[in-house]
Amino acid sequence: MASTIENFYQKTATAAMKDWPRDAVLYQPYEEEQILLAENASCLAVRTYLKMLNLPVALEQRANAEFMSPGGKRTKLPVLRVENFIYAEFDHIVTFLEKNFNKSLSAPLTPEEKDQMRSTNCLVEHLFTTAEQYVSWIDPEVRNTVTKKRNGCVFPFPLNHVQNWRKESAVRRQLRMADYLHEGIDTIMGEVDHLCQDLSNRLGDKRYFFGDSPTELDALVFGHLYSIFTMKLPNNVLALTIHKYSNLNQFCKNIDETYFSVKGK
To answer: Which of 188, 67, 77 minimizes the C-alpha distance to 137?
Structure first.
């Protein structure tokens, strides 16, 4: 009953939203010291999507960004606060913008193209995130020299070790459920390579995946690829796997120059 009342209240309260508020805030971990590869990809994808929609938002970096869920649980990043409501994760934020502000990049697509885009989004998010988590937490060199230091840097001793243990345990459970925990890195990189080949074929010589205008897929793919390209890790097998697709490299360069360069802002 309480859940039903809460859902009704949120629908009623957000139904009146028409104009994008000036005080919208996007929360994420600290980029330089704390954020991990998969989190950076998700946060960048949402930031890119908001820029593509020309929706201004203040970016705030918080040490406790992943614990900002109203329920007190870990939150999938990033966290978007719009007035008195909080939304997290790429898919949920995209849905919220479409339902409450009528903002969507995929509106011009045909029903068949929308279905294709959604299925590709799911595959991109699942496989890239899995590979990013695997490299970050299962590869011993990356885990011990980069991941644990970044994940635990905002906590005092011995809480930093406790938080690292909790996060690693959660990632291992996710990988186990997806049947990737005991796979070798070569198997996972093979699937990533297959996905990149498919994305490269879909993109071809176009600027975006569905022509001259971006969609959710472009924001999501850019978030993952650009994060993989730019985050320095002792094992750069992910970057090497996707680097050989020249049109995907150019795709990232185009979006970076259009939406994040000084001229593109």
So the answer is: 188
